Task: structure prediction
Amino acid sequence: MMALCLKQVFNKDKTFRPRKKFEPGTQRFELYKKAQASLKSGLDLKAVVQLPPGESINDWIAVHVVDFFNRINLIYGTMSEYCTERSCPIMSGGLKYEYRWQDDSKYKKPTKLSAPQYMCMLMDWIEMLINNEDIFPTRIGVPFPKQFQQVCTKILTRLFRVFVHVYIHHFDSIINMGAEAHVNTCYKHFYYFIREFSLVDHRELEPLVRMH
Result:
């Protein structure tokens, strides 16, 4: 139900990046379908995020990281016309929190960027990681790398910052689009997931602490 509503509320053409899809017939695809079925059944979101019996935790995390990337991509893609160099010259969450960009290539030191620039760098960076077979292997029998959960922690921490920025700086636009319920559901799902597996440091969660 939620995925259907999201499609109705959000303009698919505005997705920031092409959606990453799971290959039918793979275990990851089956897990994805299981996760989606639980969501659509209206189960308690805290229960939905729990690792199904007998499943690999890394597979479960991989499926959710990709799915959250797709969903948050869609949310920000729809918001992006309201998030401009002029309206958001700094990537922030209110006056107290500023997020600087750092990667291993272009920005070796934490660098001030506007919110749109930060989002662009972030989506490119995540897309590069989830399409990297050495980090997110899709072939059966290929193990996840040792640092897999650390990489996912970094991805999810940065995706959380998208929620922070959107909620603090663009909530009026979300309400005007009639998307509040869907964004809130996506956020809750994301929040319960990262808490279930302790994937994001609690200090990172402080900007939205009132919502929990």
